[in-house]
Amino acid sequence: MMNTSVSENKQLNVPKNFIKVLILLVILLGICVLASLAFGSRTIGWTQLMDGLFHPDVQSHEANVVRQRISRTIFSLMCGAALGVSGALMQSVTRNPIADPSILGVNTGAALFVVCGISFLNISTASQYIWLALLGAIITAIFVFGIGSMGSGGATPLKLVLAGAATSAALSSLVIAIMIPRTNVMDQFRFWQVGSVGSGNWSSISTFIPFLIVGILIALFTAPALNALALGDEVATGLGVRTGMIRLIAAFAGILLCGAATALAGPIGFIGLLATHVVRLVIGPDLRFVIPMSALSGAIILTISDIFGRLIGSPGELEVGIVTAFIGAPILILLTMKAKMRTL
C-alpha cells in the first residue's frame, strides 16, 4: 500500500500547539459532560449531581435524573466523535473542504433505507436500523461520487456538492412519498428524522460501540496515506500509495461512522464540517492529529448543541439536529464564500 518513503511520514512531527489544544479540548469535554448531566428540563445542583454519580444508595428524584442522563450523554459523545471523524475522512477523500455526510446526501440515503425498512419490513429496533442505514449510506455515496465524476475534470469539489445536493433533494422526495400514505410510519419516522440523541440508551450504545471502534481504527490506519494523497494523486503514487484503494478504505470508514450514527440518532448535519474545520484551523492539516482531535471536537460540539436544545426548549427540548442546522448553515455559507470551492 505504501513504501518506505510514506512510512517515514508516520514519524510524528507534533504540531507545536497540539498539547495545549488537546488539554483544552479534554477540559471542555469534561465541562460538557457535567453540564449535560446537570442541565435539562430540570436543573440539578452540584450535591445532587455528585449523589447521582457516586452514591448509588441515594434514591432521590434528582439523583435518578442524573443516572438517566448518563446514557444520553455517552451516546451524544459517541455520535459527535463518529460524525467528526467521518467529516475529516470525507473531506480528505474528496479533497473537498466543505464535504460532510449531510452535504453529500449520505444522511438522506440512510434515511430513505430506514423509512423503507419501517414501511415494508416492519423494523423497529436499533440493530435493524443500523444495517439498513449503512446500506443506504454506501449506495448513496457511490451514486453521488459516480455522478460527480462524470464529465471533464473528474470529481471536482463543486460537482460533488451539486451532485450531493441534487441527490439529497430527490431522496427526500422519495422519503415523503413513502410516508404520506402511511400514518403509522410517519409517526414513527418523524421523531427519528429530526435528529436527536434523546433516545440514546445503553442498548444503543452497545450497538454503536463496534462500529465506532472499527471506523476510528481504520481512519487512523489510513491517515499517513491520506496525508500523501493531499499532495496530489501523482505525488502520492510516486510515494507508493495505492490511491484508489486508500480512497475506498477511508470512504468506507467514513460511511461506516456516519451511517451508524445516523441509524441510531437520525440525520444530524454539519458536525463533521464544523469539527474538522475548527481542528484544521488550530493544528494544521496533518490527519494523524486531525482525526483524533476531530473526534474530540465533534463530541464537544454535539453535546453542547444538545445542552442548548434542552435549555432553549425547556420544559421540553429542541432536537439537536435543529440546533446544529441553525448553527451550521450560516457557517457553511461563510466557508463556501471564503474557500470559493478550492480543493484541499
From TrEMBL:
Coiled coil: none annotated. It is a multi-pass membrane protein. The chain crosses the membrane at residues 18-40, 74-91, 103-122, 129-148, 160-181, 202-226, 246-275, 287-308, 320-337. Keywords: Cell membrane, Membrane, Transmembrane, Transmembrane helix, Transport. Gene3D superfamilies: ABC transporter involved in vitamin B12 uptake, BtuC (1.10.3470.10). GO terms for biological process: siderophore-iron import into cell. It is found in: Cell membrane. GO terms for cellular component: plasma membrane. Pfam families: FecCD. It comes from the Bacteria. The keyword Transmembrane helix applies. GO terms for molecular function: transmembrane transporter activity. Belongs to the binding-protein-dependent transport system permease family. FecCD subfamily. This is Iron ABC transporter.
